[in-house]
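Entry 12.
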Amino acid sequence: MRKAFISPSKYVQGEDELFNLGYFIKTFGESALLIAHPDDVQRVKQKLEYTMEKYGVALIESGFNGECSRQEVKRLQQLAIEHNCSCTIGLGGGKAIDTAKCVAEGDALIIVPTIAATDAPTSHSAVLYSPEGEFDDYAYFKQSPSVVMIDTTVIANAPTRFLVAGMGDALSTYFEARATANSYSNVNAGLPCGANGGVGKPAKGTKAALALAKLCYETLLEDGAKAKISCDANLVTPALENIIETNILLSGLGFESGGLAAAHAIHNGLTSLEGTHSYYHGEKVAFTTLVQLVLENASTAEINEVLQFCVSVGLPVCLADIGVTSVTNDELRNVAQKACIPEESIHSMPFPVNEEMVVAAIRVADHIGQQYKQKGE
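Predicted 3D structure (tokens):
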């Protein structure tokens, strides 16, 4: 059996870690192309100026337009050539990070998230969009980022909602990895290497990835509520540090090398409902994790444990919590159709799944979530 595991070459997190960014730039050369939204640059400008001066490196600001499109990637690659940049830095949220991945194509890449809202920073994949923001394609590269650097002080001073959304994304990691392992399905770590046009061989997940995914879930239960309080107060505590690591590293390695299953596929289907559009990825994934547990007939104790966690940190547990106050069966069938297309990860479940099963699981998970909230009130 062929197995695969993929990870960044180096992961480092700590308070005021951005002061050390120049050190990592220096390992590649004298200058870096900085891909970041102007607002994110402004948030950390003092630290960037300090690290440039201390280590004698230059940051070439790119004027990133905010969209990870083929056109923007091509423009930025040309800019890097013109300025003889020795590495690429993606600083900020998902679009800047994905654009940096596409520009670097798997080489000399430093990722600096300013929020802990998703597990994308560690992965070797990116999502491409049209200049107008419509989905274009997925891109996969030969390796994960060279360095993932997390300044926990910056994360602590970002809105708490981002951290909580990251916990929602991380919540699905163990349950999807467990389903993938039980079905012996392939994982993202074995996907094609799009940057060089090569085709990778399918691979299963490793025991290491499943263990990290389980640790991800256990840490959420242990430190999630405490970390939220810390972030509300803009303070770095051990609990917040643990949840930042959980949201970014444990979840990132767990999803890519452990596998995705029903939760993310149903999330993708739910995006067809207009009410969900103002909610973050991880907020929707929290609810679809409950849907997956219903789909696989998980124990009442396990479902209640997840419900208790979600409510304790403020994650959605029913459709109304993600902006869907009413939904028709036809609309849910459309959600299910999108979730069940042949290439979706729902087929990594350890049993065949059809559209009717998905519709039923969404309805029941919604009802269970509503009931749980009512009891709490």
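Annotation: The beta strands are 10-14, 31-36, 58-61, 87-92, 109-113, 125-129, 135-140, 147-151. The two ends are 50 Å apart (CA to CA).
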